[in-house]
Write a structure and sequence with these properties.
heterodimer; A: alpha/beta; Rossmann fold; 5 helices; 6 strands; 26% helix; B: mainly alpha; Phosphatidylinositol 3-kinase, Chain A; 2 domains; Small_GTPase (chain A); GTPase activity (chain A); GTP binding (chain A); P-loop_NTPase (chain A)
C-alpha cells in the first residue's frame, strides 16, 4: 500500500568483509557504474545511496561501505546496527577471506538486526584462474545458513546489479515511510514485517 | 633535536623497558621482507591480511626464539602476508603501547589544532623526543622500513597515504580501544602516521613519497597538505578526473525494465555529485549514543536530517558534515 514510486522505501545496507576483497569496488560499480584497478583503502566507512526500481516499488539503499582492515573491526557494529540488509564480501581467490566472511555472517546472525537479509558475495569472479573458493562450497554454506549467495565481479560488472536487485526483492515492502519520530503506525505486536526497516533502529 | 640523532641503531641492552625484545622480531620481519625484491613488491603488502591463525603461530614461534636461542625460526617458508601480519601483530600487541597514551593524546591534539604544518611538525618532534630511546628506535625501524615499501609502490601499489591508512593503528594505539577506533575512523591516525613517515620528525631526512627523494621544507608542506587534503576533503584529483566519464549501466535482461527507471533517476542527479569521500562518517542515525564523543559527533552531522528531506539526490552524499571539525 505504501508502495509508490514517488516515495521510495529506505533501507540501510552495510557491506562487510576482509580488506581488499572489493567492497568499495562493488558499491562504486553499483552506484556509479565505475571500476578502478587501483582503489585505495577505505577509512572508517563511506556512505552512498542508490535507488532500485522494482515492478511495484522503489527501493532506496542507504549504503554503508565499511573499512575491511582488521583494526577497524571494532567500529563495525555501529554500521551494521539497524541495517535491513548486509552484503558480506569475500574474494574467490582467497580462502582466508572466505573464512573471514563466515565469521562476519555469524556475527551478524548473533548481533545484527534479527530480520536482517544477508547476502554472501564471492567477488573477483573474473579471476577464475586464481580461484581458491569453489562456488559450490559457498553455495552450500549459504543454503545451510539461509542466506543469499552470488558470485560477482566489480571489474566486469557481472552480477553486481543483480545482487542488489535480488536483495531489494527480498526486503519487506510494507514499512512506514516516516522515521522513528513518526511512529504512530508501528505495530509492535506484528513482527512479520514491520520490524525490519530502519524504523526499528532504536530498538534492535 | 634532542636525542634523535644519538644512539642511532643501538638498542640499549639494559633498558627496563619490556618492549626491547620485540624490536628483534620487528627487525627480523622487516629484514626478511626487504631482502628479496619479490617480497617487498608483493601487491597489497600490509593491506591484504594473511591467515590470522598462521600469523598467531608465527608470532608465538618468534617470541620463543627470543627466550631461547635454540629454536631458530625460518621465515623462508612463510607467505609474505603472514610475515607482514606478524610484524603488524607484534606492534599492535606491544604493552604498554609504542606511543604512550599521553603522547597519543598530544599528537591527536597537534594534528587537530595546529595553526600550520610547520608548527604541527615541530610539536611532533618535541613529543616523539620525549619517548624513551627504545621506543624511538622501534618507531624509527618501522618508518625506515615503510619508506622502503613506498619506494616499490609501482609494483606493490602501496602509496604513502594508502600504507598509512592500513598501518597507522599498528603504531598509534591508545589503551582505550574506542578512542583508537574513533581516531582511526575519522582519519586522524593515518594523518599522524603520514606526517611521521614523510617528515624528519624521527628519521633524519624528509622524504618525497611521489618521487622517492629527500625534499625541502616547503615541498614537505605541499606533500602533507596534498595528502591531508585527500584524507579530509571531497576527493583526490585523479578521482575527479576519472569521474567525468559518464557511468555505464550494464543491464541484465531480466531486470531491464527495472533499471530503466534507475538510469533516468541517476542521470538527473549525476552532475551535482561531488565525488568520493574519504571522511569520517557517522553511522548512528537515530540509535547510538554510547559515549559523549558520539553524541558530539552526532550533533555535528546535521546533514543527516537534511538528507532525509531530499528524495532526489541519489549519489554520494556527505553525512559526516563535521569531518573537519570532529572533536
Amino acid at each position: 500500500m505504501a508502495a509508490q514510486n514517488k516515495s521510495p522505501l529506505n533501507f540501510k545496507l552495510v557491506l562487510l568483509g576482509e580488506g581488499a576483497v572489493g567492497k568499495s569496488s562493488l558499491v562504486l560499480r553499483f552506484v556509479r557504474g565505475q571500476f578502478f584497478d587501483y582503489q585505495e583503502s577505505t577509512i572508517g566507512a563511506a556512505f552512498l545511496t542508490q535507488t532500485v526500481a522494482l515492478n511495484d516499488t522503489t527501493v532506496k539503499f542507504e549504503i554503508w561501505d565499511t573499512a575491511g582492515q582488521e583494526r577497524y573491526h571494532s567500529l563495525a557494529p555501529m554500521y551494521y546496527r539497524g541495517a535491513a540488509a548486509a552484503i558480506v564480501v569475500y574474494d574467490i581467490t582467497s580462502t582466508d577471506s572466505f573464512a573471514r566472511a563466515k565469521s562476519w555472517v555469524r556475527e551478524l546472525q548473533r548481533q545484527g538486526n534479527p530480520n536482517i537479509v544477508i547476502a554472501l558475495a564471492g567477488n573477483k569472479s573474473d579471476l577464475a584462474s586464481k580461484r581458491k573458493v569453489e562456488p559450490d562450497e559457498a553455495r552450500q554454506y549459504a543454503e545451510e545458513n539461509n542466506i543469499m549467495f552470488m558470485e560477482t565481479s566489480a571489474k566486469t560488472a557481472s552480477n553486481v546489479n543483480e545482487l542488489f536487485v535480488q536483495i531489494a526483492r527480498k526486503l519487506p515492502k510494507q514499512q512506514q515511510q516516516d522515521k522513528p519520530s513518526g511512529s504512530a503506525n508501528i505495530k509492535v505486536n506484528e513482527p512479520k514485517q514491520d520490524a525490519k526497516a530502519n524504523n526499528c533502529s532504536g530498538s534492535c | 633535536m634532542c636525542k634523535l640523532g644519538a644512539n642511532r641503531g643501538v638498542v640499549i641492552g639494559f633498558s627496563a623497558d619490556i618492549i626491547v625484545p620485540w624490536n628483534r622480531i620487528i627487525h627480523k620481519c622487516t629484514g626478511w621482507i626487504v631482502k628479496d625484491k619479490k617480497r617487498i613488491e608483493t601487491e597489497g603488502i600490509f593491506r591484504i591480511s594473511g591467515s590470522v591463525a598462521k600469523i598467531q603461530v608465527l608470532v608465538e614461534k618468534m617470541q620463543k626464539e627470543i627466550s631461547s636461542s635454540k629454536n631458530r625460526v625460518e621465515l623462508d617458508n612463510e607467505d609474505v602476508h603472514t610475515v607482514a601480519g606478524a610484524m603488524k601483530r607484534t606492534l599492535i600487541d606491544l604493552e604498554p603501547p609504542l606511543i604512550t597514551p599521553k603522547i597519543f593524546d598530544d599528537l591527536i591534539e597537534a594534528i587537530s589544532n595546529s595553526a600550520s604544518i610547520t608548527q604541527m611538525l615541530s610539536t611532533f618532534r618535541r613529543l616523539i623526543c620525549s619517548l624513551s630511546e627504545t621506543r624511538i628506535e622501534i618507531l624509527r625501524t618501522v618508518l625506515r622500513f615503510l619508506r622502503e615499501v613506498v619506494k616499490h609502490k609501482v609494483e606493490n601499489k602501496m602509496s604513502a597515504a594508502n600504507l598509512c591508512k592500513v598501518f597507522a593503528a599498528s603504531i598509534l594505539r591508545h589503551p582505550d580501544s574506542l578512542k583508537t577506533a574513533l581516531n582511526l575512523g575519522c582519519g586522524r591516525l593515518p594523518k599522524v602516521a603520514l606526517a611521521l613517515l614523510v617528515s624528519d620528525c624521527i628519521l633524519e631526512s624528509t622524504f618525497h613519497p611521489e618521487e622517492m627523494r629527500p625534499c625541502r621544507d616547503g615541498e614537505l608542506g605541499d606533500i602533507l597538505s596534498h595528502e591531508f587534503h585527500m584524507f579530509d576533503e571531497v576527493s583526490s584529483p585523479k578521482f575527479e578526473a576519472r569521474s567525468k566519464s559518464p557511468p555505464t549501466f550494464p543491464v541484465a535482461s531480466k531486470a531491464q525494465d527495472e533499471w530503466e527507471d534507475v538510469k533516468s533517476n541517476r542521470a538527473s542527479s549525476e552532475p551535482s555529485s561531488p565525488g568520493f569521500k574519504f571522511n569520517w562518517m557517522a553511522p548512528w542515525q537515530d540509535d547510538v549514543a554510547d559515549s559523549e564523543e558520539i553524541v558530539r559527533q552526532h550533533a555535528g552531522s546535521s546533514k543527516i536530517k537534511a538528507r532525509e528531506g531530499s528524495e532526489d539526490s541519489d549519489d554520494f552524499e556527505d553525512v559526516g558534515a563535521s569531518r573537519g571539525e570532529y572533536v
